[in-house]
């Protein structure tokens, strides 16, 4: 009987001492996700832009042995996109500009954040020659963070970010072509 009474008392104490739920931390990426999924168009673009910590995200592709596009593309939080083709040859370089959709920039920022969090290293190198380098850099108020991939050997999250940036390069309505 004492054992049963002790068990009931212990059980009652345990039920009464449940931890108080803490307010859940909501990341900027979660807030942006909420802002872009409520409606098909973003009602308050200035607010969504203010939540995204990255002022710019850029991708730079180096030459390879063969036909590889060589460029540096920089996407800005305010929607401006800049492309410099053949950026390694200043006399040949051409500059282009475009406007990009806020939802696309927000998604890229989220992908970058996932990549930054998941990456154990900032440089991945295939063990062969004649391939190209891809360097992705994001700049925020604290500075910048970059990740490089030679030979497409980086983890899948880096590859996914590269593919999303390659898509922007291929589909943005570039204008200009000025030297």
Which structural class fits the helix and strand makeup?
A: alpha+beta
- Element-by-element helix/strand order: HHHEEEEHEEEHE
* Discrete helix count: 5
Q: Could you give a short account of the major beta sheet?
A: 8 strands, mixed
Through-space gap between termini: 92 Å
Shape by Cα distribution: globular
Strand content: 25-35%
How would you state the average pLDDT, rounded? Answer: 85
Rg (C-alpha, Å): 24 Å
* Helical percentage: 25-40%
Low confidence ranges: 4-15
Offer a quick outline of the entry:
The protein is α+β, with helices and mostly antiparallel strands and about 180 residues long. The chain has 5 helices and 8 strands.
Features of this protein?
single chain; alpha+beta; 179 residues; globular; 5 helices; eight-stranded mixed beta sheet
Give an overview of the whole structure.
The protein is an alpha+beta fold and 179 residues long. Helices cover 36% and strands 26% of the residues. The protein contains 5 helices and 8 strands. It has helices spanning 2-16, 28-37, 45-51, 102-118, 156-171, and strands spanning 56-61, 71-76, 80-85, 94-99, 123-125, 133-140, 143-150, 175-178. It has an 8-stranded mixed beta sheet with strand order 5-7-6-1-2-3-4-8, with helices on one face. A hairpin with a 3-residue loop joins strand 2 (71-76) and strand 3. The longest helix has 17 residues, at 102-118. The protein is globular, with a radius of gyration of 24 Å. The relative contact order is 0.16.
């Amino acid at each position: 009987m004492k054992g049963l009474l002790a068990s009931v008392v212990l059980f009652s104490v345990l039920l009464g001492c449940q931890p108080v739920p803490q307010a859940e931390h909501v990341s900027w990426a979660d807030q942006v996700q909420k802002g872009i999924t409520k409606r098909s168009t973003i009602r308050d673009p200035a607010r969504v832009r203010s939540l995204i910590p990255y002022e710019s995200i850029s991708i730079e592709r180096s030459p390879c042995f063969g036909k590889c596009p060589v460029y540096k593309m920089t996407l800005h939080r305010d929607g401006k996109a800049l492309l410099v083709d053949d950026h390694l040859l200043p006399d040949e370089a051409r500059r282009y500009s475009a406007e990009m959709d806020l939802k696309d920039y927000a998604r890229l920022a989220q992908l970058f954040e996932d990549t930054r969090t998941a990456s154990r290293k900032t440089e991945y190198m295939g063990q062969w020659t004649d391939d190209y380098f891809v360097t992705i850099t994001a700049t925020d108020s604290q500075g910048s963070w970059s990740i490089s991939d030679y030979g497409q050997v980086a983890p899948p999250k880096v590859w996914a970010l590269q593919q999303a940036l390659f898509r922007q390069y291929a589909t943005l309505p570039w204008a200009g072509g000025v030297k």
